[in-house]
Amino acid sequence: MTRLLTLILLILMLPLCPAAQEPQIAVLSVEGPINPVTADFLQKNIDAAARRGDRLLLVEMDTPGGLDSAMRAAVKGIFGSSVPVAVYVTPSGARAASAGAIIALAADVCAMAPGTNIGAAHPVTLGGEKPDKVMEGKILNDAEAYLEGIATKRGRNAETAKKMVRESLSLSSERALEERIIDLIAADRQELLNKLEGRRLVRGGKETVLRLAGARVTSYEMGLRDRILDAISNPDVAYVLMLLGLLGLFFELSNPGVILPGVIGGISLILAFFAFQTLPVNYAGLLLILLAIILFIAEITVVSHGILAIGGVIAMVLGSLLLFPSPEPYLRLSRGLIVSTALVTSLFFIFVVAKVIEAHREKPISGREGMMGEHGIAETDLMPEGKVMVRGEYWNATSSEPISKGEKVEVIALEGLRVTVKRLPEAKPDAGRDQG
Fold first, then answer.
1. Residue range 360-404, pLDDT digits in tens
2. In what order do the strands lie in the sheet with 117-119?
3. Distance (Å, rounded) from C-alpha 345 to C-alpha 348?
4. For 217-222, which contacts have Cβ atoms below 8 Å and span 24 or more sequence positions?
5. What residues does 86 pair with on adjacent strands?
6. Of 170, 166, 136, whose CA–CA distance to 148 is shortest?
7. What's the gap between Cα 323 and its chain centre?
8. Which of 15, 47, 103, 360 has its CA 20 to 30 A from that of 293?
9. Cα gap 103→63, rounded to integer Å
10. From CA 161, how far away is CA 421, in angstroms rounded?
11. Is the distance from CB of 160 to CB of 179 less than 8 angstroms?
12. Cα separation of 428 and 436, whole Å?
């Protein structure tokens, strides 16, 4: 009876027992510059792979490089991973340059597709100021020692790795394999996984054998949040967001209560400030752009016949060129965007200025000034007071000359609710008729 109860209890508890998890290989795709969003995405997936007990974390890479801080965070995550990490430079034509090369060399397995390249890890300074020779030497020696340590830890050619930093050496996949910088070349993902089956790795002083056969391959993409943050980290996008933010706030302050421009401007500026954390921002360039906006606004309020607008255009172009000073193309603003933005902004403010000047030149249509010069008809005889019809309204009127009922008059003054008028010249009687 006891055995029967035990058996029933075990059957009832069976659904509560966790099922054996199917072995899995997690695949990530890293494309574009290495930034804090990329490093965070990599770290989250390293932690998730460890919780799932994945057999391998495969990072498929194509990058021109990126920020030193983001690269070091990625390397720390790879070194701290309990799951083996493989970096595969793919597809053909891809590269793992600069920061990407260092991340690739930090992986347990570094592989490349034919027609790819790796290297060019010479450090570059951001911010537009070239350091002195002593500081430049310190930066170079630090980067060289860092990559040498990574290569030594992974059993790769440390001397060639140092040349990637010191001489900006870049290697093709075939040459990288010969120099023992990478572990193997594979034409595609399946070939890579086949070659990795049974491969022995030394991790934490212990030998590990990769058992990948039969494992399910699952790709993990960036979520919507990460994709948005990654997109706005692009210098061109950050620049446009900043301009939208400034212009939106300008319109909201110019026309309080419109709301929409202020909301869009506020959101755009916050996103732009986030992007600036991941980019080499030169604040002199940022101040020049702010000065350009101020000059454009001043041109609207204080008409300077274009002098302030010209100054704004010059400040806008110079500020845009200085905003993201970097020797790396992917961290600079595109010249086409700078020209088009300066042109559109200038044309817009020129249009606004032209409308303001036109409005200043137009005759007022309301108030005291709007009544001056208006024409009307005498509703009664003015001797010298009476009533006139102006703009469809009856006005008490006075005149310095007698005016008969029905004659056309012109307003020459306004005091309170009384107008002073004079007879229109064409309304005067023809003097020649009396001499006929």
1. 565 555 556 667 778 888 888 888 888 999 888 888 888 888 888
2. 95-97, 117-119, 170-172
3. 5
4. 217/24, 217/25, 217/27, 217/189, 217/193, 218/24, 218/25, 218/26, 218/27, 219/27, 219/28, 219/29, 220/26, 220/27, 220/28, 220/45, 220/48, 221/29, 222/37, 222/41
5. 58, 109
6. 166
7. 13
8. 360
9. 11
10. 95
11. yes
12. 17
Closest by Cα among 318, 224, 234 to 276: 234
Whole-number pLDDT of residue 359: 62
- 148 pLDDT tier (thresholds 50, 70, 90): very high
* Span of 60-69, 122-131, 213-222, 312-321 with lowest mean pLDDT: 122-131
Distances (CA, A) of 86 to 201, 304, 329, 331, 395: 11, 63, 28, 27, 91
Separation CA 232–CA 168 (nearest Å): 29
Residue 410 has pLDDT above 70, yes or no: yes
Partners of residue 200 on adjacent β-strands: 209
Looking at the chain, the whole-number percentage of residues with pLDDT higher than 70 is 83
List the catalytic residues.
98, 138
**271 or 251: which carries more pLDDT confidence?**
271
d(CA 46, CA 81): 6
Q: 204: which 2 tokens?
A: 């934490």
Q: Which residues pair with 28 in a beta bridge?
A: 59, 220
* Residue 430 confidence (pLDDT): 45
Please give the structure tokens belonging to residue 89. Answer: 């430079």
Q: Find residue 185's DSSP bridge partners.
A: 112
The CA-based angle 222-226-227, given to 5 degrees, is: 75
Cα–Cα distance for residue pair 65/32, rounded to 1 Å: 8
Taking residues 2-18, report their average pLDDT.
53
Q: What is the largest CA-CA distance in the chain?
A: 146
Cα 53 to Cα 29: distance, rounded to the nearest angstrom? 20
